[in-house]
Amino acid sequence: MTLPRKDLFVLPEGVTYLDGNSLGPLPKTAAARLAQAAEAEWGRMLIRGWNDAGWMAQPARLGDAIGRLIGAPEGTTVVGDTLSIKVYQALAAALELRPDRRVILSDTGNFPTDLYMAEGLIRSLGQGHELRLVAPEAVAEAIDEDVAVLMLTEVDYRTGRRHDMPALLARAHEAGALTIWDLAHSAGAVPVDVTAAEADFAVGCTYKYLNAGPGAPAFIHVAPRHAHVTPALSGWLGHAAPFAFETGYRPAGGAERMRVGTPPVLQMAALEAALEVWEDIDMGEIRARSIGLSERFIAGVERACPDLALASPRDPAQRGSQVSFAHPEGYAIVQALIARGVIGDFRGPDILRFGITPLYLDEGDIDRAVSVLAEVMDGRLWDDPAYRTRRAVT
Amino acid sequence: MTLPRKDLFVLPEGVTYLDGNSLGPLPKTAAARLAQAAEAEWGRMLIRGWNDAGWMAQPARLGDAIGRLIGAPEGTTVVGDTLSIKVYQALAAALELRPDRRVILSDTGNFPTDLYMAEGLIRSLGQGHELRLVAPEAVAEAIDEDVAVLMLTEVDYRTGRRHDMPALLARAHEAGALTIWDLAHSAGAVPVDVTAAEADFAVGCTYKYLNAGPGAPAFIHVAPRHAHVTPALSGWLGHAAPFAFETGYRPAGGAERMRVGTPPVLQMAALEAALEVWEDIDMGEIRARSIGLSERFIAGVERACPDLALASPRDPAQRGSQVSFAHPEGYAIVQALIARGVIGDFRGPDILRFGITPLYLDEGDIDRAVSVLAEVMDGRLWDDPAYRTRRAVT
């Protein structure tokens, strides 16, 4: 075992961090890389940085680095924008490839922004598309010949329930539907192979398990067989010749056409440092350790805190890399935990979320989290008005 | 005169920087502010930064700071995404507000990405909208009752020609059309008052005259009378209650609904530092100095370099804050200048661009630029194969 690699991250004293599924910690090299991008590149190269520091090529280069983590071949993944925008691009492309179908199938556990972006696109298209939402367990049987595209988040953001991606993909393709996989809670968390699974489109963010910082850019993977599609968000950096400044749009080759506007160079610098961490990491080992730590956490919490109900699947094979419990006072409990240095988060109506990130968590962290949680539950320490005031971000 | 404020910026030794119209220099406080966002906020607060460091509120707060520079009232401007995305949002909103009209009127001098994004939207809408392009000089007379929206960049990126925004706005409104103003080359460059001019939508970037760094986020202003429109890019941070995680989209109030996904927190930190510079700056003084320096530059170049043809309007009132010259060897000439520390840029087919930024340029800089340009032209120093190799970014 070569995990954890705590030495690679800034982990504040007195904090047990179980929220890497929401925002990963600062990689030690990221701050220096950011300073370099600001001072040596922006500051000294000025506009020359686009060529001399390689800013222009970075979205494709970092896309390829993410591609290696999700089984995507070179040139099929590109970085930029936010995940919401990448969902929109993938969905618009998929619907264009299935002009005779009108159903976007998703599940009620999907992350809301994916559903909202679909709503907005459907309104713009004005062609009577329907966003059909079913329970996560009902997805397989809801796939029929009306479905243009199956759009799912592989790992549920609330419960950590993991869809059987290869099986659903096979079923979707059998029915003639395309698929979009939101890998927000998968990339860097569980082994993914978009090529083996024959995914059509995959999107994801980089600020959770990939540790690229708050508001880090998203990624999109387009299977080579779909790379001819005309992007709905057809921006100049997705143009075949951006510096020819033509008045008409001509898409670049491959996934590069999914670039839109100017990339966020400073965020890219942090992302670059964050991705270097993965060069030495084996995803199989991550997964094995994630399951081990998760099982230990579940057993510990169930033993010490009988009032908390497991909200994640009990079978590790059906989970991503997070464990959730339900409790009507979930919000206050999480606040009481945070006040004591154990950081998880809350998702309404009653879910306490804990991210299990073997890159920088070990058994000692898990045990400490269990013991603080037991203390908070045993002593009803959450029952304090200060912990009930909802803040903007939960 | 309180300008220039060279003390506020990192200006590399030996460089005369006339490309702030493409990428502004590093404000001295920005690197420290970035380090703070990375180390003290992301590093030490981790996920708590969203509340404790105010990350969630920042796009509206920085939007208001930009609003003050363009005459927009509080709550009507918000920051995020790229300018391409903001153009798309404004255009989708405007077309929705004019459902009975089909023409998007723009000019052939508009920045290509604005036109490309319009193309993409028109395809998605599939309602037979038409992007009608006319010469910049022909815009006024092309405004008729078929026009749904007039979409223009106030200052032409190639020539620096400045549209008469109030006059075109009045004419558009008379014809029942809405207007979108791309202020990419206006905000921080020339006085703008979107309220007095009754602009419907305005968008812009922050990495040019606002000096917020490579890939800094864009902004969008929505006139309060249009703030009820349903966003086409309906992401979760434009939702009325993002942390309620509802499955259906309900837009937030005012311009906040034009937020889409998670804001780029690190880029926002640099933007915040960059906007603080403007608190003490008078846009009237910027404009007066810009005209003074531009006139000095034009006179100097015309005297010393007869082969360069002025490509900008001669009347300062019709220019933004840049001066362009045309020459068939423009690309090589610009490379020869850059090699000698005078940084401008090139836009095909033959335009040499020079940004005039009184915030950190003075008469000495202008005179030095003129003399190096004269040297390059007199000695045909551009006539070197090394200067003819086109790089990715020109």
TrEMBL record, chains A, B:
GO BP field: anthranilate metabolic process; L-kynurenine catabolic process; L-tryptophan catabolic process to kynurenine; NAD+ biosynthetic process; quinolinate biosynthetic process
Leader sequence residues: none
Where are the N6-(pyridoxal phosphate)lysine residues found in this chain?
A: 208
What reaction does this catalyse? 3-hydroxy-L-kynurenine + H2O = 3-hydroxyanthranilate + L-alanine + H(+); L-kynurenine + H2O = anthranilate + L-alanine + H(+)
Give the residues the record marks as binding pyridoxal 5'-phosphate. Answer: 83-84, 111-114, 153, 182, 185, 207, 236, 262
User: What molecular function terms (GO) are annotated for this protein?
Assistant: kynureninase activity; pyridoxal phosphate binding
Quote the EC number.
3.7.1.3
Entry keyword set: Hydrolase, Pyridine nucleotide biosynthesis, Pyridoxal phosphate
InterPro entries linked: Kynureninase (IPR010111), PyrdxlP-dep_Trfase (IPR015424), PyrdxlP-dep_Trfase_major (IPR015421), PyrdxlP-dep_Trfase_small (IPR015422)
What are the record's GO terms for cellular component?
cytoplasm
According to the lineage, what is the superkingdom?
Bacteria
Pathway it works in:
Cofactor biosynthesis; NAD(+) biosynthesis; quinolinate from L-kynurenine: step 2/3; Amino-acid degradation; L-kynurenine degradation; L-alanine and anthranilate from L-kynurenine: step 1/1
Which top EC class is named for this enzyme in its record? hydrolase
* Record note on quaternary structure: Homodimer.
State the similarity comment.
Belongs to the kynureninase family.
Job description of the protein: Catalyzes the cleavage of L-kynurenine (L-Kyn) and L-3-hydroxykynurenine (L-3OHKyn) into anthranilic acid (AA) and 3-hydroxyanthranilic acid (3-OHAA), respectively.
Q: What is this protein called?
A: Kynureninase
Species for this entry: Wenxinia marina DSM 24838
Tell me the organism's taxonomic lineage: Bacteria, Pseudomonadati, Pseudomonadota, Alphaproteobacteria, Rhodobacterales
